[in-house]
Amino acid sequence: MGLKQTLKEIYYIVADKRLLYFSLSLGISTFAYSLLTYYFPIIMTNLDITTFTIGIIYSIISFLYVVFNIPLGAIVDKIGSKNAVTLSALMAVPLFLLMGTLNPLLFIISLVIFESVIRIVNSLGAHRFMLNYTNAGKAFGVFSLITSILAAIGIMLGGYLLQHSVSTLLFTIIAVLFGISGIIRFLELPKDENKVEVKRSLRLGFKYLKEDKKLLLYLLVSILSSGLSLETYYVTIYFVKDLLLPLTFVGVLYSSYALIMAFLPLLFSVILSKRSNFKNLSILIFSNSVIFFLVPLFTNVYILFLLFYAWTVIVAMESIVDYNVAQSVTKPEIRGTQVALISTFVRIFSVFYNAIVGLLFQITPLYSFYFTGFLGILAIFTIKFAEFIGVLK
Question: Which spans are transmembrane here (predicted)?
């Protein structure tokens, strides 16, 4: 595909009003949330909430995520993606107003509800919307363009504002932004079709998971490759504590990652629109795994810099291919449930994965990188074995 044709397709994608309103509304709420997302623990310590209690809070959130994820997925299938993302935004308004009272108990309760219910409904609704789009990869490209830019701005602005003070006004502004986002979603997003009853959605979700071999393959690959992320706090610790890289340098890496992820997915959504399949997904996972084997071999800052940006390019391509593959293996009427099932199993696996990686990291960071890279290679062998036995025919 020539450059002119590629740019023309990008223009038509961005000019799609339905997709633009969807991405803009979620971009506004993402910006609002990003003002605080990295700073919630700091705010809680300022409210004299102990570090032990903060740890308990996040453990409860993780537990509730696993418990609520699948039922909420079925509910999203019942009410549709428009209602799901609209309700999630509007329900966030009173929760942030309660947080803004800066009462420790109200803050904790509101934070737990937001993180364990509101974010799940919003995420599942957004996934359902994009997977129901004609080309899921292109939908994700526009979504990533808008939300990543606004998230990068929000993170930096939030850090600056909170450095000076934690105020009720900031929470009020965030609540207003969520309200505006909800209104846009209600007025501009199209209604869903093919809504199903909650019990039927759950029944079909588990039924297809057992019977659909391609869906089961996608689940296994998603689980095994879920650790291939350089955003884990283990890697940050490795960069700062072991390699003695300045924290400002690490901050620049992650900020630039957000900006790169804003633009590359949209470009790749056009280029990879007809190349999204398990074979190409395995190539990208392999490339990602190789980087995990290479990172601990180098201490030179510039080489690490190059490896990091090679990883961002691969992740951008992998995100597009993954969305298109997910669209091909899930059923339109129960996508909320199926996405919830997959993410729940991945989240359960991550509990054991993080424990193992933490243990290996304590012995030597080298082992944790190799273990993660090995899981990526295992995901590739899973795909190849599926090809061998005819699952992908």
Answer: 20-40, 52-75, 95-118, 139-162, 168-187, 215-237, 243-268, 338-361, 367-392
Write down the CATH number for the domain with range 199-387.
Answer: 1.20.1250.20
**What does the block give as tokens for 95?**
């929760």
Q: Could you identify the residue written with the tokens 């280029």?
A: 271
Whole-number pLDDT of residue 234: 62
Kindly write down the DSSP assignment for every residue of 196-235, as one continuous string. Answer: --HHHHHHHHHHHHHH-HHHHHHHHHHHHHTT--TTSHHH
One DSSP character per residue, 139-180 reads HHHHHHHHHHHHHHHHHHHHHHHHHH---HHHHHHHHHHHHH
The alpha carbon of residue 40 and the mean position of all alpha carbons in its chain are separated, in whole angstroms, by 18
User: Per this entry, what is the length of the chain?
Assistant: 393
Look up residue 44 and give its two tokens. Answer: 């809680």
The correct answer on CATH 1.20.1250.20 for the domain covering 1-186 is: yes
Residues spanned by CATH 1.20.1250.20 within the chain? 1-186, 199-387
Residue pLDDT, tens place only, 107-157: 999 999 999 899 999 999 888 888 887 777 777 777 887 888 888 888 778
Name the burial class of residue 32, with classes exposed (0-12), middle (13-18) and buried (19+) by CB atoms within 10 angstroms of its CB: buried
The gap between the terminal CA atoms of the chain, to the nearest Å, is 27
